[in-house]
Structure formats: C-alpha cells, structure tokens
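Good morning,

Attaching, inline, the backbone tokens for the sequence recovery test we're adding to the shared suite. The designed sequence is right after.
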C-alpha cells in the first residue's frame, strides 16, 4: 500500500474512515455492542466462552495435530464445547462475578474506577 488511504474499508462495509485512524468507541455500532454486553453480561460471556472453547479445540486438532477436516474428532470437540459452556460459562461466572460481589461489596465500584484512581484507592 502507498498510504493509509489504501487501508480504508470499502464503502459498502458501512465505515468510510480508516480502521487505523478512528477510535473504536466513536461508532454507534460499537456503543450498541457495548450496551448489549452490559445488558446481557451472563448470556454474552456464555456465548463467547462456549465458542472460544470449541474453536480452540478445532484449532488444536487442525493446526497442532494436523488433522484434516474429515478426520476431526467431533465427540471430543463436543465435550470441550460443553466444558466451556458449563464450567467456564456457568460455574466460573457464578464464582468470580456473583460470588465475589458478595464477598467483596466494593468490587463493582473499584472495577469501574480508572487506573489512576485504582492505584490511589485504599479501601
């Protein structure tokens, strides 16, 4: 490419500005995605960790173990995907989010502070 203008997204993608020149939080789509994550934190993290765990096993089978698509162990992938949904998505969420809220009542306030405020916080 000759300049940053060559890296622009095509206009049919919905963004006319360069990916590298804009902040992620300036688009309404990003704000909408953030609000979905904030409105449905359990569901969104459950979907994410389930897809991540299943995808990771597919990655390991195809890249590390060098299996072809017709040689994939689907049963193993289903087990990993269920592990991601049940343990990572359900049990860890209950422990680290809901359980820690009860153990540490100031946790949510502290998490919403900026880095400088966190370093100065003594509670």
């Amino acid at each position: 490419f000759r300049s940053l203008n060559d890296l622009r997204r095509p206009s049919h993608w919905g963004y006319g500005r360069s990916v590298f020149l804009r902040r992620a939080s300036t688009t309404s789509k990003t704000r909408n995605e953030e609000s979905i994550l904030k409105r449905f934190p359990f569901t969104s993290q459950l979907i994410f960790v389930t897809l991540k765990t299943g995808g990771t096993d597919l990655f390991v089978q195809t890249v590390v173990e060098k299996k072809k698509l017709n040689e994939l162990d689907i049963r193993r992938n289903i087990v990993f995907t269920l592990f991601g949904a049940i343990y990572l998505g359900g049990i860890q969420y209950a422990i680290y989010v809901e359980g820690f809220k009860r153990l540490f009542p100031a946790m949510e306030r502290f998490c919403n502070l900026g880095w400088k405020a966190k370093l100065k916080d003594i509670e």
